[in-house]
Design a protein that fits this description.
Blueprint: E1 2-7, E2 12-18, H1 21-42, H2 49-70, H3 86-96, H4 103-110, H5 114-127, H6 130-154
Helix pairs in contact: 1-2, 1-3, 1-6
C-alpha cells in the first residue's frame, strides 16, 4: 500500500490509500517476459523460451485482472478518479516497457485488452507533453537498438 496526501474534488489533503498490487503483478511478469524475449538476446545472453512462455501466460492473467477488476465498468483510471493517480502512472510505465517489442509481438499481447489500450491512451493524453518526454528515450533510442540486437541473435 502507498499512502500519499493528494488534493482532489472529494476532500482536501486527505490521505489516499492506493492499492498497487496490480502494478506489482504486471511488473513481476513483464520483467520475466521481456528478459527472455528481447533483453537477453540484445545483451548476448541465452534466453529461456520456456520461461518466456510461462511468463506470457502469467502476464496475460495479470492483464486480464487489470482490465476486468481495476478498469471495470466505465472507470477512466484505476481507482475510479477523473485524473490519473500514482497507481496509474506506475502501472502504465511498466506496460510501456513492451514498446521495445516489434508490433506483431506487442499486438499479440495487448490485442485482447481494449480497455487497457484505451486507458493507456487516456493517461498519455492527461499527462502530455510530460509522458512523451519521459518515454522519448525508450521509444526512439532503446526500441530500435533492442529490436536490431534481438534480430541479429535470432539469425
Amino acid at each position: 500500500m502507498l499512502f500519499c496526501p493528494i488534493t482532489n474534488n472529494r476532500s482536501l489533503n486527505q490521505p489516499l490509500t492506493i492499492e498497487l498490487s496490480c502494478v506489482y503483478c504486471v511488473h513481476s511478469f513483464s520483467v520475466g517476459y521481456l528478459l527472455n524475449t528481447i533483453l537477453a538476446p540484445a545483451r548476448g545472453l541465452t534466453m529461456n523460451p520456456h520461461s518466456a512462455i510461462e511468463c506470457e501466460k502469467i502476464l496475460s492473467s495479470a492483464l486480464s485482472i487489470l482490465e476486468s477488476f481495476w478498469l471495470k465498468d466505465s472507470q477512466k483510471f484505476l481507482l475510479g478518479y477523473d485524473q490519473p493517480t500514482i497507481a496509474d502512472l506506475s502501472a502504465v510505465c511498466e506496460l510501456m516497457q513492451f514498446e521495445v517489442l516489434d508490433e506483431e509481438e506487442k499486438n499479440k499481447i495487448f490485442a485482447p485488452y481494449g480497455k487497457i489500450q484505451q486507458w493507456i491512451e487516456r493517461i498519455k493524453a492527461a499527462t502530455r507533453p510530460h509522458f512523451d518526454e519521459v518515454h522519448q528515450h525508450l521509444l526512439f533510442e532503446d526500441r530500435p537498438r533492442f529490436r536490431e540486437a534481438a534480430g541479429k541473435s535470432a539469425s
